[in-house]
What we know:
Chain A is of the alpha+beta class. Chain A has helices spanning about 105-120, 150-165, 175-180, 185-195, 195-200, 200-210, 215-255, 260-275, 275-335, 340-350, 355-435, and strands at about 30, 55-70, 75-90, 95-105.
Amino acid sequence: MEQAAPDPERLLQPAPLEPLSHPDAGLESMVGEETKGARDEGPGDGTMTENNFSLKKIEISVSEAEKRTGRNAMNMQETYTAYLIETRSVEHSDGQSVLTDSLWRRYSEFELLRNYLLVYYPHIVVPPLPEKRAEFVWHKLSADNMDPDFVERRRIGLENFLLRVASHPILCRDKIFYLFLTQEGNWKETVNETGFQLKADSRLKALNATFRVKNPDKIILKRNISSGILADRLYGVYKVHGNYGRVFSEWSAIEKEMGDGLQSAGHHMDVYASSIDDILEDEEHYADQLKEYLFYAEALRAVCRKHELTQYDLETAAQDLAAKKQQCEELATGTVRTFSLKGMTTKLFGQETPEQREARIKMLEEQIKEGEQQLKSKNLEGREFVKNAWADIERFKEQKNHDLKEALISYAVMQISMCKKAIWDILKDCAVLFCFSFCVPSGRKKS
Amino acid sequence: MSGGPPKALPSTGPQSLRDMPHPLAGSSSEEAVGGDSTPSPDLLTARSFGDKDLILPNGGTPAGTASPASSSSLLNRLQLDDDMDGETRDLFVTVDDPKKHVCTMETYITYRITTKSTRVEFDLPEYSVRRRYQDFDWLRNKLEESQPTHLIPPLPEKFVVKGVVDRFSEEFVETRRKALDKFLKRITDHPVLSFNEHFNVFLTAKDLNAHKKQGMALLTRVGESVKHVAGGYKLRNRPLEFAAIGEYLDTFALKLGTIDRIAQRIIKEEIEYLVELREYGPVYSTWSALEAELAEPLEGVSACIGNCSTALEELTDDMTEDFLPVLREYILYSDSMKSVLKKRDQVQAEYEAKLEAVALRKEERPKVPADVEKCQDRMECFNADLKADMERWQNNKRQDFRQLLMGMADKNIQYYEKCLMAWESIIPLLQEKQEAK
């Protein structure tokens, strides 16, 4: 997931956009205990508010999901899921948390927030959202957005999104983000009023679409696909073992001394078969963690695309400027080296007057002056962009390495404990097998 | 019972519980296996088996400190103590060393049969001969003919049903060898069958074919008489105990058949899972090549998954080679036992018919004619033999299935132990970097 270092010399950024950071919206956020798989992100570094806004720690959680029906833009009935976002502030002194805000949002609002952040923070690797549609819902027949497992996983994904934004040193100060957490009604209008959609570079969207899946991502994506099929197969293995339960039970009914042992074996199989549900839940959780970074990679690429685009703009402007300079020179010296429409029409319809020529030269000179200034500022802004983007990319890389390591460790730990439990279960049931059946003590009287 | 069969040897069933070492005995007997299956105190007599180092899992926690090696070896030790008392054994037979013979007409496998015995029926203390499947088949037929009142053990399938299996593959030959060894050992353990002349010839003759041609008809008294029972006698009521046996065998075979089918399905699912797993591991390798700090751990995960795949493959093979054959063998056994039951019915039917005929003659002093007496004799012998054999069979069946299930449990434990080791090995890869940060 590494990209080549952008060349500092050739950078450009389109019209600078100011993040709408409200001075009072300094939030220092902390991962809440309610979250599943709590992350230890401790973003204490540099997220302090500069002004006198009282120091409050914020805990954010997406605690519930609810099915709703409503009317959509085309006035048709639709069903969707709404998610409850709760924000708690933690008083420093006693560590008690107080519920400060709670509101309901649906997935499309999350999307809106993210798109806004993408436009206003082009140099930041913006955290990804969970999948829009249910893709691989293992061992279930259809991919259903209303499926409770999917909704649950999405709830976790949305919570992770908010937590990551809140723990980002720059993003956490954004006013729109703050309002997302606090202002239920009217938020959509507020976002749209920023006019961010106009500011969004449509070329960027097009570029992103064409370069959807690049090599590293394909591999991780494939891994996730594998994980889905793998989970399916594993499920099959466990569940068929469950068929043993009934047969062993029926068999034990016709046996005298062997009965207990066979019952034990059958029971063991039943327990084994039902253990798959917990196992797959853990597998799914792990797959989701990897998927998050797959989507993160796309965000990373967006930053680089931005850079490429701005570089293209810079080159175009530079070329434009050079052409104008040349034109000016030709007019001044009277030599026509380059083709121009004016030159042609002059040849056809007669020379222009010296006054006309002077006017044109003057106009060009002004344009050149403007162009040079613009180029200078664009260059400057470009370098700023690179510096900031690079800083964020470094931050992202460290976070990624840390998170993935944790994910791998907990996955390995899960596998280890699963193996130990399996061994234990077998030994336990074997003890019954051996001790209490299959043996005919010599002292026992046979009827 | 007049003129019964030769005295039966002491039962060769499993030893008494009292004599067996308790699996949880030893230094850590306080830490019993789980809380729910604590055995009663009188079973705690430990016999010195040389297994003082029995290490057991701690209390009831799954994450106990059981060392991997000990879980599996514990099971192995538990299975060892079922051997017969060494003192009463005077005949030992083994089947091993399969060899392929290529002749102009055919290709076939022979097995070496080694016999050691102190019995007077054997001229030499030791014999070593080579036999092929045909010879075993001949032996079994002879035994059925000459000992019709006894249960003859089954042979592995003669023909390979699914034509895809290679008759000369290592796995097939080994599976067959094990079954043939079992067959001979069962006969060896039988107090009557082991003295059968055909068995003796099978074990000792240099040239078995010569004997086959001679058509030795050394039938025992009972065998000869039973052979001449004409068919066509209908039995009205099977005695309760034999009816019970018949019903039992029916259900037993049915259940085993179901288990066989389930086992085959599990193997199929496991193979499909294995295919996916084998693709999954290398993905981590490819990913690792793109990373810097994560490269080593990811490579480790790839290797780990590879190891788990191999372990699963071994487990699946074990199921096919060890578990399925025993199920099939017992199904065959049940079938042959049911035909013996039917023969018994025939004998009883003949006796009852003849008895009825006498009763109908209405003589003043109905003297039971000699041939009716003979019939009664035959029937009672048959019943006795069958009952004794059934009990023997039940004991052996118990032993066999205990060994089978424990064996499968052991193999499963080994599988999990391998996976455990694989996953534990990558934890340090992930952690040392964390600490270095």
